[in-house]
């Protein structure tokens, strides 16, 4: 009996040992064949190791893939007039030798930039300086398709232009971000065609908002970013982490011509306003009263006896302008337009530009004799002359 008990005890011990080894090294032998869905669940995103999960969370591939198809390359060309030798205008020379210029090949210069498809109808937003003075424009999509384009309208004072693709093909379109959705520190992507190497995405953050007094354009309200923007990126898209358009890349601050981490983009709210006006009328219409304005410095405020430097100093009044007819004089300080306070020259310029031409606006003026209100019939801001950039 004792011998049988010993045999049973040894068998149990060996069985327990085998069970421990199998459960430790080969647990699937005990569970049987595991369903394929279990393995798939463990391999699915979110069940990856911690390091891989952090890489996925730090990726902006979805935002790039969503916005890149709508960012295009713009190729422009224009004819160059070469200097004409004085002998070619000599009748005797032309009688014997003819006019060589008639058979000479015409020279053309090429340019490149970027743009953003913003409408299924084929409207493209870009910078005015990208297509300025061009007589031929071609747009290439990221999928390799190319279409000729015509200029729908331009606004040199914001450096924006709108192109219309000449095609009925289905086009990718970028989504606009809500106005005032940006904050300093937000991550953004700059997409364009730098140096003509092909579509490129760079990442940075919003460094500042509302940058003005840069001397780039008449109307300035720039987004500043450290996302790399280089020649060829002009007119391209600045998008948020969701792939929505927040700005049009326009300019950089650089001592060498390359990116130094200070780039500027036109906010989407301003770009949308210009786009809608150009599509509707072919041009941008702004209010105008015909005054020359000057920033009020603390020294000027003291010399004029002003208690604060707020407002815009009227340095000059154009003859026959709406301002002159309303009684505005040089030396006046404009402190309000239609009940809104004017803090500086930039604010005054934007307020007047937003007034509909033909309407009467109330201007609040500060003079030595005190403050008074003048009714000004707003005129239409003259269209600036289009200049050629070399």
From TrEMBL:
Substrate binds at residues 129, 159, 232-234. GO terms for molecular function: serine-type endopeptidase activity. Keywords: Hydrolase, Periplasm, Protease, Repeat, Serine protease, Signal. It is found in: Periplasm. InterPro entries: Chloro_Bact_Ser_Proteases, PDZ, PDZ_6, PDZ_sf, Pept_S1C_Do, Peptidase_S1_PA, Peptidase_S1C. Residues 278-344 form the PDZ domain. It comes from the Bacteria. GO terms for cellular component: periplasmic space. The active site is at residues 129, 159, 234. GO terms for biological process: proteolysis. PROSITE patterns: PDZ (PS50106). Belongs to the peptidase S1C family. This is Do family serine endopeptidase.
């Amino acid at each position: 009996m004792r011998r049988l008990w010993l045999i049973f005890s040894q068998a149990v011990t060996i069985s327990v040992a085998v069970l421990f080894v199998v459960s430790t090294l080969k647990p699937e032998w005990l569970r049987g064949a595991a369903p394929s869905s279990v393995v798939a669940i463990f391999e699915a995103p979110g069940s990856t190791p911690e390091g891989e999960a952090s890489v996925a969370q730090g990726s902006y591939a979805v935002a790039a893939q969503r916005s890149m198809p709508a960012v295009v390359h713009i190729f422009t060309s224009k004819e160059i007039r070469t200097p004409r030798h004085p002998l070619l205008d000599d009748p005797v020379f032309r009688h014997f030798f003819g006019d060589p210029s008639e058979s000479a090949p015409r020279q053309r210069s090429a340019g490149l930039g970027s743009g953003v498809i913003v409408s299924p109808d084929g409207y493209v937003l870009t910078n005015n300086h990208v297509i300025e003075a061009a007589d031929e424009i071609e747009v290439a999509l990221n999928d390799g398709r190319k279409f000729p384009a015509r200029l729908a309208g331009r606004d040199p004072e914001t450096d924006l232009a709108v192109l219309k693709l000449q095609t009925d093909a289905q086009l990718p379109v970028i989504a606009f971000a809500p106005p005032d959705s940006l904050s300093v520190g937000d991550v953004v992507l700059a997409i364009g065609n730098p140096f003509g190497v092909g579509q490129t995405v760079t990442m940075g953050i919003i460094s500042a908002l509302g940058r003005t007094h840069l001397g780039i354009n008449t109307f300035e309200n720039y987004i500043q970013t450290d996302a790399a923007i280089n020649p060829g990126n002009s007119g391209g898209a600045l998008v948020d982490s969701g792939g929505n358009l927040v700005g049009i890349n326009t300019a950089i601050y650089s001592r060498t011509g390359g990116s130094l981490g200070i780039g500027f983009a036109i906010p989407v709210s301003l770009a949308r306003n210009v786009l809608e006006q150009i599509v509707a009328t072919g041009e941008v219409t702004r209010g105008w009263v015909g005054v020359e304005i000057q920033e009020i410095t603390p020294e000027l405020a003291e010399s004029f006896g002003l208690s604060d430097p707020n407002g815009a100093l009227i340095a000059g009044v154009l003859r026959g302008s709406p301002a002159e007819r309303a009684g505005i004089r040089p030396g006046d300080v404009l402190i309000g337009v239609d009940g809104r306070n004017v803090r500086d020259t930039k604010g005054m310029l934007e307020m007047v530009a937003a007034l509909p031409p033909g309407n009467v606006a109330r201007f609040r003026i500060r003079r030595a004799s005190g403050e008074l209100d003048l009714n000004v019939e707003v005129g239409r801001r003259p269209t600036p002359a289009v200049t050629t950039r070399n």
